[in-house]
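Recall the central idea of this unit: under ordinary conditions, the amino acid sequence of a chain determines the structure it adopts. In this exercise we apply that idea directly, starting from the sequence alone.
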Amino acid sequence: MTARLWLIRHALVEQNARAFLYGTMDVALCPEGLVAHRRIYEVLAARLPRPARWLCTPLSRTRRTAETIFAAGYPAAALTEEPALIEQSLGQWQGLAHDRLPPLLAEPAHAFWPLAGAERPPGGESMADVIARVGPAIEAIASHGGDSVIVSHGGAIRAAIAHALRIGPDQALHFSVGNLSLTRLDREAAGWRVVCVNDEVAIG
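Accordingly, the structure predicted from this sequence is:
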């Protein structure tokens, strides 16, 4: 039995939120982006499989992204919340301006992320922790077989890729996962297969 997971990163968040580390804070989407990216939503609505199970996270930005895809032409579906696919928690560092973070780090930041893969903020998670919680979640989703569309977050999608490829957190952080990009992971009898990562064809 093959399972196909279609992972979409939520849409761009509002401008003020981008000025700080928001992690698992429930920030709003950018209103201008919802209008400007209308064509992207239409292409996603046409491209995503029908029927499919739809999942989002407890954060409103994933649910709102899914609802906008529905409004763009995909038949509205029930949305199941999956807490294990939420963004990396930055604990006490959430809400800090980006330039206030470097002095707090125990080790140098990753080249493509504010934290190294093993860095765990006070009261938060390391990227290694995220991989450890996301892996079992996508295995459980895949156990249902068929198509599942998952609207999630950049960190959680990188963690899913890491689980599929059996790579570590620092390697996972080298993957670019843009807003509204599509990543597809298939679970087959032989194991996980990465079909595409950060597919932004719709943007063109």
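The helical segments are 31-36, 38-47, 60-71, 127-142, 154-165, 169-172.
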